[in-house]
């Protein structure tokens, strides 16, 4: 069986007792980086008086995963197998998804334990009330692809969450300030760590503030959605218009993203009331 185990993103106490039990009972551990995982298990062993010796470690990351997958079969998972990334939840801006897909295709039992991840923590910390968001990971460092993705983010009608390095955070704030100076941005630094800090302000104010800050640490950025303009019409607003029902349905469907058939049925139900 395979078990994906989330690891702390900064604070060792965030690991669950269930995760510790699975790690202690594991025989083979696939790791994003074996050195990082061995160091983590040494720290956890000292803190919780656990024995993580006699484990087999194998590297499994974005550069070798296809090669490693070719060497696996069902017998590999006849023992207790674990996958951990360097920090946080496997598969979320981290390797692991191809291993899960391998298990699904080969009918190998697997489980994913809940645990620490920066995305949901930053979302909860942000104070934004929107219930949907898009996650973009790290943007490209430069070029047309970065500019295109940033435009996509600024036109998204959902919250946008992304990661940024300390070396490029000021550049991102400068880009946001140039394009949408009044857009509200939430920044979370070093989540769960000693120097955890948060900021929430307009892009322009944050850019000015961060010009004078020695930017360090790992950052999560949450960007306010694009304000909807003219999308608050309801059936009661459209129904009195002197238009054929199907035209009204197409209009509402275009504005809301619903299917024409679904909206048309709502019109029929409304008329029948």
Automatic annotation (TrEMBL):
<keyword id="KW-0489">Methyltransferase</keyword>
<keyword id="KW-0963">Cytoplasm</keyword>
<dbReference type="GO" id="GO:0005737">
    <property type="term" value="C:cytoplasm"/>
</dbReference>
<comment type="function">
    <text>Catalyzes the 2'-O-methylation of the ribose of cytidine 1402 (C1402) in 16S rRNA.</text>
</comment>
<protein>
    <recommendedName>
        <fullName>Ribosomal RNA small subunit methyltransferase I</fullName>
        <ecNumber>2.1.1.198</ecNumber>
    </recommendedName>
</protein>
<dbReference type="GO" id="GO:0070677">
    <property type="term" value="F:rRNA (cytosine-2'-O-)-methyltransferase activity"/>
</dbReference>
<dbReference type="Pfam" id="PF00590">
    <property type="entry name" value="TP_methylase"/>
</dbReference>
<dbReference type="InterPro" id="IPR014776">
    <property type="entry name" value="4pyrrole_Mease_sub2"/>
</dbReference>
<comment type="similarity">
    <text>Belongs to the methyltransferase superfamily. RsmI family.</text>
</comment>
<dbReference type="InterPro" id="IPR008189">
    <property type="entry name" value="rRNA_ssu_MeTfrase_I"/>
</dbReference>
<keyword id="KW-0949">S-adenosyl-L-methionine</keyword>
<dbReference type="InterPro" id="IPR035996">
    <property type="entry name" value="4pyrrol_Methylase_sf"/>
</dbReference>
<dbReference type="InterPro" id="IPR018063">
    <property type="entry name" value="SAM_MeTrfase_RsmI_CS"/>
</dbReference>
<feature type="domain" description="Tetrapyrrole methylase">
    <location>
        <begin position="1"/>
        <end position="205"/>
    </location>
</feature>
<dbReference type="InterPro" id="IPR014777">
    <property type="entry name" value="4pyrrole_Mease_sub1"/>
</dbReference>
<keyword id="KW-0698">rRNA processing</keyword>
<dbReference type="InterPro" id="IPR000878">
    <property type="entry name" value="4pyrrol_Mease"/>
</dbReference>
<keyword id="KW-0808">Transferase</keyword>
